[in-house]
Amino acid sequence: PRPEILRMAGGDDLTVHMWVLTPELWEDLLVHYGFRVQGITVLDAPERNNHASYRLFQVHRPARITARPRTAKPPVAHAAVGVGAVLLGPEGLLLGRHRLGTRELPGGTVEPGESLHEAVVRELAEETGLCADPADVRLLGMFLDQVGDVVRITFGALATHWQGEPADQPGESVGDWRWWPLDALPPDLFECSAQILTTWRPDLPIDHAPARFSPITDPHTTASASSQP
Question: Pairing mode, if any, of strands 103-104 and 92-98?
Fold first, then answer.
């Protein structure tokens, strides 16, 4: 600190200690708030006994690049993002029957604002009544294929722990939940479920349409899961 004399309204002087930020700290603060320092000029008082010294900072704020939509209308949806969860318990693999007839893993569409782990947990609860924690969901990878004019993006996941017993839920399109032994899987698997299962266990004898797969974790390091009461 340096001494600073304050001229009081009543005519008296008050000597206080003034703390001065270093030029380096000023520059850090300016950069933190979006400025760029171009130069620092030292301005000292010309009198020998005057210790006043100032710093003149020359700064500028860079031009900000803003993004704007091409039109005011929202784009036409051309992609679908979903999740499918593998649950392997003591009695086998959990599969349900869709109202269109296919057997499939628990899962569905990812809703705006939720993570992939949260989507798996929500779909499990909505479709099967099972309770899980996002920390117990491990993503296997992303599948990319196209059905008609829609790009389909599916994330395969492995649930390592859950609570409860699967049961049909009101208003859901998938029900009749059953545990299937891996050596006796049904022949009418939904395509996305088949793709996830053969990535998780390449030894399973399942045929399906090809899809571009991008792994997230090694699916073979977590080859099984378990339920909790």
Answer: antiparallel
Distances (CA, A) of 83 to 8, 15, 181, 195: 71, 69, 22, 12
Q: How far is CA 113 from CA 118, 119, 124, 141, 186, in A?
A: 10, 10, 18, 20, 35
Which residue shows structure tokens 């699967």?
166
Q: What is the pLDDT of residues 65-91, one digit of tens each?
A: 666 666 667 667 677 899 999 999 999
pLDDT in the model for residue 68: 64
Q: In the structure encoding, which two tokens stand for residue 216, read together?
A: 């997230």
The H or E element that residue 212 is part of is strand 212-215
User: Using CA atoms, how far apart are residues 229 and 164, in angstroms rounded to an integer?
Assistant: 6
Q: Residue 223 above 60 pLDDT?
A: no
Helix, strand, coil tally for the chain in percent (to 5): 20, 40, 45
Longest CA span, the chain: 98
Could you tell me which residues come within 8 angstroms of residue 163 by beta carbon, excluding any fewer than 6 positions away? 130, 131, 132, 227, 228, 229
Tokens of 165: 């017993």
Q: Residue 191: in which H helix or E strand, if any?
A: helix 191-200
- Three-state helix/strand/coil letters over 90-155: CCEEEEEEECCCCEECCEEECCCCCCHHHHHHHHHHHHHCCECCHHHEEEEEEEEEEECCEEEEEE
197 and 186 in contact (C-beta within 8 Å)?
Answer: no
- Give the whole-angstrom CA distance, residue 124 versus residue 177: 12
